[in-house]
Write a structure and sequence with these properties.
Pfam families: MDMPI_N. The protein has helices at residues 3-21, 40-58, 82-97, 103-122, 138-156, 168-181, 194-201, 209-215; strands at 61-62, 128-131, 134-137. It is mainly α. The protein has a single domain, classed as dinb family like domain (Four Helix Bundle (Hemerythrin (Met), subunit A), Up-down Bundle). The chain is globular.
């Protein structure tokens, strides 16, 4: 995908989250998500931290070469983050709870997400950034942000049946990432649509016995990213 395509996909991913949370009241922002222990406001705070991380990274160009790309970046997060992930989950929940009202997180998100998208559009397509201890090409960095946003969009709407799904361009980036984490010989089960594929890959939905048989050895790699 071109740099412009990656930028548009990120814009669609972040706008999709805004469309989910923008109309929710404080009660709805306390609905559950697919992320254990996190309400919608808690998970939104976590995604807000991603947008803030994007602003910092994009404003701080790094020297190349890259040590990971948009696919290999996720291998460090396969199967979850263990104790570090549990500590971050607890921190994010307490941080979100520090707002007077859950809608306070939404207000900061709606300011920060568009700013991150604008910074992404102004970045050098041939440049590099550093984040999470890695150096990535700018387009690959945008793809990692999009993939995480799409999966968390699906997490956010588990208790919101009327909420919009992630956009097609953003979803395509996330699906391409997951495809890259599988071997070339692995065939995606025919019954999975994109959303189910992403939820299975992220460990949000368990594999059935039939799916394990269909996937063969690759079933042991799931979840592919946390």
């Amino acid at each position: 995908m071109t740099f412009r395509g990656q930028h548009l996909a990120l814009a669609q991913a972040y706008d999709g989250i805004t469309r989910v949370v923008g109309g929710l009241d404080d009660t709805d922002l306390q609905r559950p998500t697919r992320c254990r222990g996190w309400l919608i406001a808690d998970l939104l705070f976590h995604v807000l931290c991603d947008a803030q991380r994007a602003l910092v990274a994009l404003a701080s160009p790094a020297e190349g070469p890259a040590d990971v790309d948009d696919v290999s970046y996720w291998r460090a997060f396969a199967g979850g983050a263990g104790d570090a992930g549990a500590r971050h989950a607890w921190w994010a929940r307490r941080s979100a709870a520090a707002f007077d009202r859950p809608s306070g997180v939404v207000r900061i998100w709606t300011d920060t997400a568009p700013a991150a998208v604008r910074a992404a559009g102004a970045a050098d397509p041939d440049g590099y950034v550093t984040t999470q201890g890695h150096v990535l090409r700018v387009p690959d960095f945008l793809a990692t942000l999009t993939t995480e946003a799409v999966i968390h969009h699906l997490d956010l709407i588990v208790d919101l049946p009327d909420a919009p799904a992630p956009g097609a361009a953003a979803t395509a980036v996330a699906v391409t990432t997951v495809d890259g984490l599988l071997s070339d010989d692995t065939v995606r089960p025919a019954g999975w649509d994109d959303a189910e594929y992403l939820l299975k890959a992220a460990g949000r939905l368990p594999l059935t016995e039939r799916e394990r048989r269909d996937l063969g050895e690759a079933a042991g790699w799931f979840p592919l990213l946390g």
